[in-house]
Amino acid sequence: MQTMTKHLGGPALLLAIGVGFANACGVAHADRFPTVLYEVNGPAVATYISYQTDTGQQHQANAPLPWKTQFTAFGGQVFVISAQGPGPISCKITIDGNVVSNATATVGTPARTACTH
């Protein structure tokens, strides 16, 4: 009796590896869309805020502080926010109520801070 072994072809093998990698790294599943909150805090006005959302790169100039924005993300994206203004100035990224990144800048003219996840 002959035993048959089935091998995965190139595209199928890459898909299997990608799914395994995504699961191992905690990439969000397509049926779950996290709520993301970006915050910037400081004593005055942020002269410039730049951030990445589900719709692309966004900018805000001369934003009164505290400042925040919230959106529903799709799975697997990178979250980034940066801000500059009179220090101290801080940023924070919260996903589904959990703080995943925060940073504060106290020096510089202007002070610059960035958070990523």
UniProtKB/TrEMBL annotation:
<keyword id="KW-0732">Signal</keyword>
<keyword id="KW-0812">Transmembrane</keyword>
<comment type="similarity">
    <text>Belongs to the MmpS family.</text>
</comment>
<dbReference type="InterPro" id="IPR038468">
    <property type="entry name" value="MmpS_C"/>
</dbReference>
<keyword id="KW-1133">Transmembrane helix</keyword>
<dbReference type="InterPro" id="IPR008693">
    <property type="entry name" value="MmpS"/>
</dbReference>
<protein>
    <recommendedName>
        <fullName>Transmembrane protein, MmpS5_2</fullName>
    </recommendedName>
</protein>
<dbReference type="Pfam" id="PF05423">
    <property type="entry name" value="Mycobact_memb"/>
</dbReference>
<feature type="signal peptide">
    <location>
        <begin position="1"/>
        <end position="30"/>
    </location>
</feature>
<dbReference type="GO" id="GO:0005886">
    <property type="term" value="C:plasma membrane"/>
</dbReference>
<keyword id="KW-0472">Membrane</keyword>
<keyword id="KW-1003">Cell membrane</keyword>
